[in-house]
Each structure stands twice: as C-alpha cells, then as structure tokens.
Amino acid sequence: MDSNLSDVGGGPGSSATRLVWARVMQGAVEDAVRAYEAMAAGHRERVLEEALVVPAATRDTLVEVLRQARDFAGAARLLEADGDDRAAAPMYEQAGAPLLAAEAWLRVGEQARAAAAFERAGSLEQALALYQALGARESLAHLLGRMNRPMEAAEVFHMLGNTHAELEMLRAVPTDDAQRPEAVLRMSSLLDAEGATWRALVLLADGLKHATGAGAAMLQAEQSRLLRQMGLASPPEGGVAAEKAPPVVDGYGYLKAIPIFDGLSLEDMRDLYRLARPVLVPAGTTVLEKGAKGGGLVVLLEGMVSVSTGPGPEARQLNMLGPGAFLGEISLILDGPVSAHVRAHTVVRALRVTRTDFQYFLETHEAAALRIFRLFTQSLAERVRALSS
C-alpha cells in the first residue's frame, strides 16, 4: 500500500476511504467511481476533506472520478480550492447551486454569466446591479418585471422599442398605485399610435374611475384630445362603451391554451407572454421553412397559413391553419429541423417566442420548467403512440 494511504493523523486513506484512494492513485477511474458511488454520504465528505492534502495530479484524477460519479458539487469544491473558478462555475451549475456558480463566475470576470446565475438563484438585486453595469437592457427589463417594478421595466422596454412588453408592464401597475394615471396615459398613447383609439378611450374611461386630482385631470385632457381626433365633442352618452371598441386578439388566451403550458401559474404565464414578440407576415411569405433550424413557437392571431410537405409547386398541402393555431412548439425544447413548410396564405398577425427567449424563461422559472418538460414528454409520447398504432 502507498505510504500516502495511512491512517496516521486521519490523512488520506483512512479505513473508510482507503479503497477509493487506492483506485485513484492507480489511475483506475472506473473502479474509483464505483467505489465512491457505493460510499455513505459522510464517507464521501471525508474523501473531499482528504483531497486537500494530496498532490495536485492525484486531486485532478479525483475530480474526474467525481464528475463521472455525478458528484458535480464535490468536483466544483475541489476545483474552487485549486483556484480554478472557470471550471468550478459550470460544475456548480450542474449541481443545481446557482449562487455558488454566480460567485465563481464573478471571480473570473464573467459578469453576464454571473448575473444570469444570480437571477436563477433568486439573488435579484445582485443580478440587477450586474445587468445595469453591463448595459444588458433586455435582461434588465425582464428582471425589473419579475421584481414588481413595472414602470421601470416599461421605461426600459420603451427604449428597446418593444411595445408589446411595454404595454404588458404598464398594465401590471396596480389601480391604487400613484403612478397608475401615468401608466394609463402611456398605454393610451401606445394604443392610439397603433390605430386602436377606441381601446385607448375605453382604457382612459376606466382609469378615470380610479384617478383623482392631477391624475384625473391628466387623463381627462388625453380623453378630450382623442375625442377631438375622432370628431367627437364629448364622450358618448353614458360614457365610452367597451363594446364599441373592436374586439382585440392579443394572443394571451391562445398562448395559455397550448397544452405544454397547461397548469402554469398566472405570474409565470404573464412572464412568458411578455417574452413573445408580435410579428406581421405578408401574404405569400414563408413562416417556417422545411428542413431549416426551428425558429421557435408561432401562435397565429389573425390570418391563415398553408402547411405543406415542401416549398415547391409539387408539394402536397397538408393543412390550412387560422387564429389560435400554433406551430414550432417542439423547437422550443428540441433543436431539430422543421418538419413541414408553412407559408402565409393571407396577411398574418402572430406572436413568436424564440428558442433563446424560451430558454431564458426556463432557466429563471424552475417550477414552470419542470411542469413544461413533464407535459412536453407526455405530448411527445402520445405522438409516438399515435404514429405506431
């Protein structure tokens, strides 16, 4: 037996850990993995303590043993002890220890990765400070939304030109908040700019029910301006009726109805909806190209699309889809090619959730991610059964 494997002073190779150390020092990694996996938790902890006094080369072998044994936290601890934070950080992430990962990323100057890890760990103020320092405005805006700071989030989304997310944040300002009149005014302006002036008037009428003082005066002034713009001297008798506003399909209900999102909480659904990007597709334009890398989820709000076996004239049409239909949900999770060709039959208004945005959502909403993966697996299994029957 190697002289390093003694019980003297409780050093490496104590009676409970000797078998693992013998295999490690022989370079028999697979045998060492099996021996380590068979140990009780207390003995595995003893191995990690003993590892601090062995030569660096031996410790490197043990790190590989821990990786293969799936003790990612143990491997990260040893790497961190050796000052290799760059290797330790992803190990901590695999171990489900995002706070330790964030601190390791920070030590090696990887501020963006540290910020994302702090956010996953729930250390939102630390993440916020890093996003601000980095000028990462989109991440900053989403984080402000999660922190229930909707007016600040709306301002950042405004700078980004993301009207959809800005409106969502402004809607989230409570009716009893002192900033609610300002939020209503900004929403009214955005809706009017989109040609939805009736919706803006309905919103202003509702806002006036809760506003007082200067806030009420500000909303009344905007209401008067929009009425003059529409050629009306005053609100219709009985006020602005909601039923006079044209019906609006914003896509939230369609998104919520997609099976893999079933059971998500209200807050998680609103966060997911805020990540969606409105798109307008001219008639005849390709929405999804067969064989191309999946572009994420597309939810149809208005118009029709044609689904076919390919782009050419010889392709066979498989289906025509309209409002409420969704495409590309598999590409949110599986990075594979599109299986059919989808073309806009008419002008199409839709929502798109990109794979990148969806991955961010999964990383920052652990409970929602677990639910989505479970339902996705069930859906995939049902498709396989249907194809094999």
TrEMBL record:
SMART domains reported for this sequence: cNMP
Pfam families, per the entry: cNMP_binding (PF00027)
Coiled coil: none
Limits of the Cyclic nucleotide-binding domain: 260-379
GO molecular function, one term: DNA-binding transcription factor activity
Matching Gene3D superfamilies: Jelly Rolls
A GO CC term attached to the entry: cytosol
InterPro entries documented for this protein: cNMP-bd_dom (IPR000595), cNMP-bd_dom_sf (IPR018490), Env_Response_Regulators (IPR050397), RmlC-like_jellyroll (IPR014710)
Cross-referenced PANTHER family: CRP FAMILY TRANSCRIPTIONAL REGULATORY PROTEIN (PTHR24567), HTH-TYPE TRANSCRIPTIONAL REGULATOR ARCR (PTHR24567:SF74)
Name of the protein: Cyclic nucleotide-binding domain-containing protein
Species this protein is from: Corallococcus terminator
